[in-house]
Amino acid sequence: MKNVKFTIEYDGTNFAGWQRQVSERTVEGVIEKSLYKITGERIDLVGAGRTDAGVHAIGQVANFFTKSTIPGEKYKYALRFILPTDVSIVDSEEVDKDFHARFSATGKIYRYRIYTGRLPKALLRPYSFFFPFRIDYNLLERATEKFIGQHDFSSFMARGANSHNVFKTIRRFDIERDGDMVELIIEGDNFLRNMVRIMAGTAVYIGAGRIPLERLDTLLKGGRRDLAGPTFGPEGLYLEKVLY
Amino acid sequence: MKNVKFTIEYDGTNFAGWQRQVSERTVEGVIEKSLYKITGERIDLVGAGRTDAGVHAIGQVANFFTKSTIPGEKYKYALRFILPTDVSIVDSEEVDKDFHARFSATGKIYRYRIYTGRLPKALLRPYSFFFPFRIDYNLLERATEKFIGQHDFSSFMARGANSHNVFKTIRRFDIERDGDMVELIIEGDNFLRNMVRIMAGTAVYIGAGRIPLERLDTLLKGGRRDLAGPTFGPEGLYLEKVLY
Hints:
By secondary structure, chain A is an alpha+beta fold.
C-alpha cells in the first residue's frame, strides 16, 4: 500500500463543494471517479478541509491509500487530461504511511478577495466578492488586528453548525490591496463552518462603518452570531494553503 | 433620440457568443433584455464585432438609439444589478448621432492567452488555452513578424465562412510573457471569422516546431486553410479594445 498526497487547485463555481454526495457534482467525487479510471480501485480520498459550494482552492490537500503501482509523482501527469478542466492536481507525491491530510494539518491559510470598484467586472465576478462601497482601511486594519489570538469564535459560525470546540487561534489577518481589489489573508489553526466568510463580512462592515469596531470585543467572547456581519459569498473565498 | 455607446466586459464561458439568437443565451440578447427592463423599449444593439461562443471581451463596444430620458452616463449604474454577473457595462456615454459601433471602428485589438505550464491550473482554464509544450520564442517572434502588413488572410478564415474582402492589415502582433503565461496581442483593421484563433494556432505551432516558418509565405498568399495551424480554443481569446 502506498499513501499518496495530492495538492489540488479547483474553480469552485460549478461544484457543490468538496465532499462527496450521491447526486451532486463535488470535487472529491470527481477526483475519486478519475482515480478509479486509472487505478481500477474505489479510492477513499481524505481532504484537509471541506470547502462549501462555490469556494475555490489553490492549495487544497488530500491523501489516499492505494495498491496501484503508479509512482506517487506520476499521478499529476496521469490525471491531467482525465480530470474535468475545473480541477487540477498541481502536485502529487508518495508520503509516509502516517500522513493524514486532515489530522496532520497544523493550520490553514485562506484568502478572501473583495472587488471594491463602483462598477462590477464580469471577468472577476466568479472570483471575488463585489462590494462597491467606501471602506476606511485604517478601521479595517484595526478590526483585523483584534481577531489575532485565541478566541471563542462561535459568533463567526454558520447558524445550525455544530462544533465540539469553538476556541480557535488566528495567527495572521493581513490586508493586501491592488487598485480596487482587496484581499484578506487569514491564517489559523482550524476553522468553523463559514468562519472566514463571516470574519470577512464583519471586518469589512466595520471598515465600511456599518458595525462599530468596539462590537468585536463582544463578538469575540462568543455566542452572538446575531451581532456579527453577513456571511460574504463563496465566490471570494480561496483555500490557499494547508500547513503541516 | 439619443445615441448611447457602451463599453462592455464579459466572461464568454456561458454564452453562445455575442449575436442575438432565438433560443440561445447570447451577450447581445441578455443586454437587450436588461435594457427593456429599464427603458421599456425594444432596443436594437449594434455591436462592434460578433464574438463566438466562449470568447471573452474586456472592451467590446456597442451603441443603440433610445427615446429614454436616462442620461447616457447613468446606464452603467442602472444596469449593474440588473445584468447577470457575467456581463458588465464598464462605461456608458451619450455620443454623436452618427457614431456606429461597427462602421465607425478603425481597428480592433485582440489578446490571446496561452498557458504553457506542464500541468493545467483549474482557475485559469476557462481564461486561457492550455498548451503544455515547449515553444521556441525566437521562432514564434519571427512568425509573428511575418503577419505584419496587408495580406490575403483567407488561409486564416473558418471553413465555410464568407467574406467579400479577405485582404486585412495586421498592424501589431506582440508577445508578452509572464512565467508560463504567454499572451499574443494582435491589432488589425478588421478580422475574418476565427482569424485570430487560427493565427494564434499557426504562430504557436511554428514556435513549437510543428509547422515550418517558411510555410507562412504560402499561407499569407491566401486560400490554404488546409496548411495553416489549428483553430485554438475560444477560452483564450479576448476582444480587448475597439479603436475609433
